[in-house]
Specification:
CATH class of the domain at 35-164: Alpha Beta
Largest sheet: 4 strands, antiparallel
Radius of gyration: 18 Å
Shape: globular
CATH architecture of the domain at 35-164: 3-Layer(aba) Sandwich
Oligomer: single chain
Distance between the termini: 50 Å
Number of strands: 4
Number of helices: 8
């Protein structure tokens, strides 16, 4: 059976029973290049991002949301670097997540990047619950995105998120295909919990 038709179980093997949206979440590079995310589903995913917690309820996150085939999608894809450019064009949606680095008075928001991370995580968990997959990327040209979308100075492009439905792993180049089907690994709790009394 080819990987195009074979279902690869990517659920995390966990030491505790997690909710399915967390257990089944993973970051593929193989997206179905014909699938579309419906507007109501996309709105639900963005609503999850909107309701994430933030310091003093500052909500220092902003998003550029682009569906495949749009001019904005092409601008985001053009700013991607390395292997990201190879596979991300198959995603249904590309989102740029931006951090609001200072408030209206010009005062720095020291926790803004952490808060943006919570917002993106809420989005990704909701996407998983909706049957979607997401893959976050750090390999992009932030200045190119700033110029392409005339981004204000107090907003920092922080990550790009590919969103869509799972595609065939064997459509990827060999080096990416190997990563796609490799076993999922995480450090143990003993490695990450420094103190637990």
């Amino acid at each position: 059976m080819s990987l195009a038709t074979q279902s690869i179980d990517r659920a995390a093997v966990t030491d505790a029973d997690l909710i399915p949206a967390l257990r089944d979440r993973w970051s593929p590079r193989s997206f179905d290049p014909t699938a579309e995310v419906q507007d109501d589903v996309l709105s639900t995913v963005l609503e999850a991002a909107r309701w994430a917690p933030s310091a003093m309820n500052s909500q220092p996150w902003r998003f550029i949301v682009a569906k495949r085939g749009s001019a904005s999608f092409a601008k985001i894809h053009a700013a991607l670097m390395g292997f990201n450019k190879v596979w991300a064009d198959s995603a249904s949606v590309l989102l740029v997540a931006l951090t609001e680095t200072e408030d209206a008075e010009g005062k720095a928001r020291p926790w803004a990047q952490y808060d943006l991370g919570q917002s993106v995580n809420s989005m990704i968990v909701q996407a998983s619950a909706e049957g979607l997959h997401a893959h976050q990327m750090a390999g992009f040209d932030a200045e190119q995105l700033r110029a392409s979308f005339d981004v204000e100075a107090h907003l920092a492009p922080t990550t790009v998120v590919a969103l869509g439905y799972l595609g065939a792993a064997d459509a990827l180049p060999e080096v990416l295909h190997e990563r796609e089907i490799a076993p999922r690994e995480r450090k143990s709790l003993a490695d990450i919990v420094l103190v637990q009394d």
